[in-house]
UniProtKB/TrEMBL annotation:
InterPro entries: FUC_metazoa-typ, Fucosidase_C, GH, Glyco_hydro_29, Glyco_hydro_29_CS, Glyco_hydro_29_N
Cited function: Alpha-L-fucosidase is responsible for hydrolyzing the alpha-1,6-linked fucose joined to the reducing-end N-acetylglucosamine of the carbohydrate moieties of glycoproteins.
Catalysed reaction, written as an equation: a neolactoside IV(2)-alpha-Fuc-nLc4Cer(d18:1(4E)) + H2O = a neolactoside nLc4Cer(d18:1(4E)) + L-fucose; an alpha-L-fucoside + H2O = L-fucose + an alcohol; a neolactoside IV(2)-alpha-Fuc-nLc4Cer(d18:0) + H2O = a neolactoside nLc4Cer(d18:0) + L-fucose
Leading EC class: hydrolase
This protein's name: Alpha-L-fucosidase
Residue span, Glycoside hydrolase family 29 N-terminal domain: 18-307
Species, as recorded: Strix occidentalis caurina
Amino acid sequence: MPPGLLTWTVCLCSLVRWYWQKEKREPYVKFMEANYPPGFSYEDFGPLFTAEFFDPNQWADILKASGAKYVVLTSKHHEGFTLWGSKYSWNWNAVDVGPKRDLVAELATSVRNRTDLHFGLYHSLFEWFNPLFLEDATNVFKTRKFPTSKSLPELYEIVTKYQPEIIWSDGNGNAPDTYWNSTGFLAWLYNDSPVRDTVVTNDRWGVGSICTHGGFYTCSDRYNPGHLLPHKWENCMTIDRRSWGYRRNAQLDDYLTIEDLVKQLVETVSCGGNLLMNVGPTHDGRIAVVFEERLRQMGAWLKVNGEAIYGTKPWRAQNDTVTPDVWYTFSPKEGKVNAVFLNWPVSGTLELGEPQAKLGETQVELVGYKELLKWVALGEKGIVIALPQLTPKQLPCQWGWTLQLTDIN
């Protein structure tokens, strides 16, 4: 259950466009009036998306350092601007306007040359203000001008051109899968496309498909059920608590701490999910230093505790019944139960209510500490473990620790 990264989401702040032009929220209208000339349109933002500092090799190195196993680039969001030179998005793409670069191709090349991450692409089915989509919506989706001339051709284009291993679909526009011809596209993707043997997809392919159909379920943004699901799922969330894109006015408290992120990761993986962490780069192509720090911190934590995450499966219990913030995973190859605990007990002992230990057989290790730990059983179920007489700062990692237990039920 590897973590992943979703990057460059809402590259031209499409949510701002929705709030400003569609919903006409007062703060957004006033901001535009105060900071931009009269008659300024959303399309005028295109040349301002410059990406002059975009270094795909640097991005790839940061992504690798994060410990992620896959990356999903937002190739197009709901406002229709594509990060590649799509022939179906004339003059509204990163090759014709703004950067004058194929950003998808550049990042794909760097990720594949410099890392072992799987490369994926996010793609929005609908576009808020596209006249063809609006016409189809007015016709209650009895006509299909938009998907046949814009959305579906784009999907075929990115798969054929960039061969992503993940297609992260989004934005059904309240239209059914039959309008999007999702089953037709997916049949081609899995049977005839150049990635038919490697690709995986999510569940956002039309009204009624989310959390019901798909290679992995997303169910909702920031989805974290806290219990085991019978189908593979993903928690797609943001490091910025309030936004999927870069915010110039963000405060430090708006960003999740590394402790928050580790908690999200272990909760998600214990319940059978993957974690997809969103970062919002800047218009000039930078991953802001606060995002880079969080990503590198996550990589440092995984370097020590990765055995509790990579290649694991859910155990019979997901979290402990006695001590809060203890989450379990199982490593089938090693036959070990991993107990990740997020708070170091002042008492120096950790009581776990779930493991059934076997005297003379069960061994308990603290990842990053050489000696076996002593323990005593609490009847037929439960165990009390004596932790090393160390402060958390003396251990290889300070944001959560992993115990590995062998020969337990």
